[in-house]
Amino acid sequence: MKKALITGGSGDIGSALCQRLAGENIHVIVHSNHNLDKAQSIADTINQGGGSAEACAFDVCDAIGTETTLKKLSESGLIQIIINNAGIHRDAPLAGMSRENWSKVIDVSLNGFYNVTQPLLMPMIQSRWGRIINMSSIAGVMGNRGQCNYSAAKAALNGATKSLAQELASRKITVNAIAPGIIQGSMTENSFDAQAIKNIVPMKRAGKPEEVAALAAFLCSDEASYISGQIININGAMA
After folding, report:
1. Which candidate in 58, 102, 113, 150 is catalytic?
2. Each residue of 199-234: b (16+ CB within 10 Å) or e?
3. Domain containing residue 108
4. Tell me, what CATH number does 107's domain have?
């Protein structure tokens, strides 16, 4: 059974990712930063449904703490699937954005990607199989007002995705990014009403976390072995 680490696994999209991959006979590590109880609840639900899962909590911005936790998680088996889903918003026009909010968003999305992915690469390379998926955003492709920090972090993640895909291609490891648009969940509910979504999205609806998870599951499969270095939009024809 392959083992997958999903950072930010306790969120709306993250929990859908965990549940879908568990349904593909993959052992899922449900990560959370602070909310270990929520991550454990998701893992418990997966286990009760016949899947295989465990929960963990660590700060992806803490390089040493992350590496220490990853070593412990790897003791029971090689982690060959990484979904870098952890991310935060600290929205404001750049003219009024604090340095702290600029740095924190980039730290989680970009440095978090490095802190989680880099320590797991050599064992994955030696196994000659792996899947790395970076959760980007439409903001990293098109930009978005009030999100210079988030857009910058996700655009940089897109570039890292393309470069790492080239580095690992000969080892049968694929690296792709998924760039969701407006997806149902707590963050969307606080930002867009139904009419706004109809005005913005050509398909006239928000996407479902399960639709994002279905795409991720395909990219993790052997059927997607020739897809790498791609930024795949899932946004109802917004771009």
Report:
1. 150
2. eebeeeebbebebbbebbbebbeeebeeebbbbbbb
3. 3-230
4. 3.40.50.720
Tokens of 65: 């703490």
Give me the amino acid identity at 190. N
Which residues share a beta bridge with 30?
6, 55
Contact 146, 140 (CB under 8 A): no
pLDDT tens track for 191-230: 788 898 999 999 999 999 999 999 999 999 999 999 999 9
Query: Could you give the angle at which helices 99-106 and 148-168 cross, rounded to 10 degrees?
Result: 30
Number of domains in the chain: 1
In the block, tokens 């998680």 appear at 73
Instruction: Write the burial class of residue 76 (CB in 10 Å: 0-12 exposed, 13-18 middle, 19+ buried).
Output: exposed
Active-site annotation holds for 226: no
